[in-house]
Design goal:
By secondary structure, the protein is an all-alpha fold. It contains seven helices and no strands. It has one domain. The protein has helices at about 5-40, 45-70, 75-95, 105-120, 130-145, 150-175, 180-194.
Length: about 190
């Protein structure tokens, strides 16, 4: 690549760059969510609330980035996934202020992970194993709603969800997407609209 990249070179790297930005926001979400748990666990509820609000903002941003990343796979399903995730983020924020009663965000994030997994499986620009793991994580999060929180199985479900989302985050952060395949899939969607 030359020192002054041409417009074609910039657009060619664009899908991978967008995927890496998505991975970076995903990492920031993980860091702030974990920090919030640690702060609340140590009795620093005010800082924990602030960290939870920041992590929710990162997840809203992540949802929008995922919408655009998977729009070439299926625009309608990508939009549906985004709406479900945003509803889950809203419930999370309301729960932080004790305004939503008896509604678990997992009711939304389970289907969101299922849809993301499906979109990854249908994509040509990410490995299918990431999609399969996200589908399993989505099913796990939905199972979490049925099991009592003290269930021995719930720890395995939690680990599965964290591993699936963590691997997706790491893949996007380090490798991004296959830009040629992303463009081909986006072009196919564009051609089917005309």
């Amino acid at each position: 690549m030359s020192a002054n990249p041409s417009k074609g070179e910039i657009s060619q790297a664009s899908p991978r760059f967008k995927a890496r930005v998505t991975g970076t926001v995903y990492l920031l979400y993980f860091v702030t969510a974990i920090s919030a748990e640690l702060l609340v666990g140590r009795g620093q509820s005010t800082y924990g609330l602030a960290a939870n609000l920041i992590s929710a903002a990162f997840y809203v941003t992540l949802t929008v980035l995922f919408y655009y990343l998977f729009k070439p796979v299926n625009g309608i399903l990508s939009l549906l996934a985004a709406i479900i995730s945003l509803a889950g983020c809203s419930v999370t924020i309301l729960n932080l202020f004790h305004l939503a009663t008896q509604v678990s965000p997992l009711l939304f994030f389970g289907p969101y992970c299922l849809l993301l997994g499906y979109l990854i499986l249908r994509s040509t620009f990410l490995p299918w194993i990431l999609g399969a793991l996200m589908v399993l994580a989505g099913l796990g999060w939905l199972t979490f709603l049925i099991l009592p929180p003290t269930s021995h199985v719930s720890r395995y479900i939690e680990v599965l969800g964290i591993v699936a989302e963590g691997l997706l985050m790491l893949w996007l952060l380090t490798l991004g997407v296959n830009p040629q395949r992303w463009r081909e899939q986006a072009a196919d969607v564009g051609e089917s609209r005309t």
